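Thread title: Can someone regenerate the structure for this chain?

I was given the following input by a collaborator and told the matching structure tokens would be attached. They weren't. Posting the sequence so someone can regenerate them.
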Amino acid sequence: MNTATAAPITLSAAFIKEVEQTVTPHWGELGWVTYKRTYARWLPDQQRTEEWPETVQRVVEGNINLDPRLQGDTVSDQLRAELTQEAQRLFKLIYGLSATPSGRNLWISGTNYQHRNGDALNNCWFIAVRPQAYGDSHIIPDYLQPDQKAVSMPYSFMFDQLMKGGGVGFSVVPTNVAQIPAVDRSIDLTILIDENSQSYADSVALGAVNKADWLATHELQGARYYELPDTREGWVLANANLIDAHFDQTNPTDANRVVLDMSNIRPKDAPIKGFGGTASGPMPLIEMLFDINQILNAKQGHRLTSVDCTDLGNLIGKTVVAGNVRRSAELALGGADDDAFITMKQDKKQLYHHRWASNNSVAVDSEFDHYGPIADAIAQNGEPGIVNLELSRHYGRMADGYQAGIDDAVEGTNPCGEISLSNGEPCNLFEVFPGVAEQQGWQLEDAFELGTRFAKRVTFSDYDWEVSRKAIQKNRRIGISMSGIQDWILDTFKTRVVTGFNEVKDPETGKLVAQPIYNQAAVKQVDALYHAVVAADQAYSDDLGCQPSIKHTTVKPSGTVAKLAGVSEGMHFHYAGYLIQRIRFQESDPLLPALAACGYHIEPDVYTKNTMCVEFPVKAANADDPNFASAGNVSIAEQFATQAFLQTYWSDNAVSCTVTFQPNEAGEIADLLTQYRHTTKSTSLLPYSGSGFKQAPKEPIDVQTYQAKRAEITGDVAQVFDQQNNHHDQKDIELVDQSDCAGGACPIR
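Best answer:
Regenerated them for you:
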């Protein structure tokens, strides 16, 4: 029997009530507060934010209905029953915090915004900076044909995705930058603003001019004129108009002047519907456009360098950050022998102006052996990171050996480095907390299967850019991650995964290296879970009639999401056994009175106005275990070896890892990068910082300090919040900061 119409799959109120009564969410010490300030969406019709069951219901229903078999006019009762049962199991899995989709899905899945912008379900993207055609995309400048290559295209893609909340990795390796033609002309940029605009005075102060006065004395004929609509696309197209005017191939009228009218852009603090938050006004865009025009004008008659191309991307990222709720995460990938790129952040003036907007990495292959200068740069400022594209193109898991061209189109990575990507491709993430899942009674294979199917459905979203649709349809790439890895391994196997080292000779370099010894029970378990993910993907792909995913597994850095369940972040070791975690809130946040009533220490933020800093004393899982190690005391060698373990037996994509090192370990960096050149697809390093500055996000403390601070906390924040607010907060707020990734490297909601 077939139903007459394909009504969406929904979860019943009775089912949700039953789960609430039988499953207790595994909130971490920061979990509920983190959820409430980061992922609980404002419900305007009810003038409150979501509660956790409502968030999970929204996310699950938004995802399950992406199954392409539901898109026809008729759907069998059997399929509806199967997908409803799957939705129920997903709800239990996520509600109990045994697993979660990415932070992007927690925020967007099931909203109207998802249906308008399917891109928004994906955390991060990659684009190659070279002239490309816009193709059949939702944004295309009116002076271009769809198949016409333009220098602006990768920057338009980047700008668009960043404003939709995604992070973007971009490649400025020599082979890409060499494809950009010399800058043909200098452009006279004029920005107009109507004197009735609320942004008039601020815009004029940045160089805009009075619209009526200028038009009264100037002709538009011969100029490239664009009146921006009050949309995200308008900002993107304004930048495209400016960039492309500098190149003859995309300036068919030979215009030497570009006139951009900002009068219609909503003023600062006006609400942004859909994604949420408030507007910044046109001012950040005006500043960006003048800065970009200055860079391009200075290159007239010359080709852009990798530094120029990175600067353009960084200026875009800086502008997006000004959009309040929107966050920018960029990774610039340059050449390993490009000294100007490697050292570009040493220019402090430019660093503070805009070059802070990206983490910078270099692309290498396994034959590269010039790690000394890179290690020296890392020891100074933690950059660049390393991305081995050769390994990504020809290997899945290292345990499965060389597979020529298995992922041959890979050109870069997302900003956190856990997914190798082809041009225009996004990462697509779901993570399981194996220790929590087992505590909640799940068979791990079942939890990973549900995550696999969740991520697979995301590949059937409606994507805005043709370059992305082509990559996704070809690869169906997913990234099933696990988090809380250190907690789970210590609980399950009673040791850390690296149990020791053997000294062996590297057959290529002849040097003695410390070869890690792994816990074999952990190897066997992780290997079995990998094969469970691959089998689940194959079965679901057969059902859907689509390609199996080109790759399946990863380790994402986690961050905010890991805080929900209170587990260690991705593969990383806990920052310390005991610590103060500081979280910043807007001073009007309705959570603050509840936190104060419960005894949490709150003080004004020393860095930002109208912001309060709250201290949370945190004890890491297994902090008292004699085998426990933290980022503050685990060796750099063990961290490299742990990443290699996961790259070998779990991840066929890559493993996001920020190795922390002490000052006395800096001399080991070059040798370790060389040792793992055939194993590690991407890695980054940062010096370990304890409490070196005021109100540090994380500050190690001793057990006595932890106990004293815990004794000051006298109530449950969720309960007090309910009592103070009649069970619901009554104010839609802006986030001050948040991060979906460890260490703040990839701040994506």
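The radius of gyration is 26 Å.
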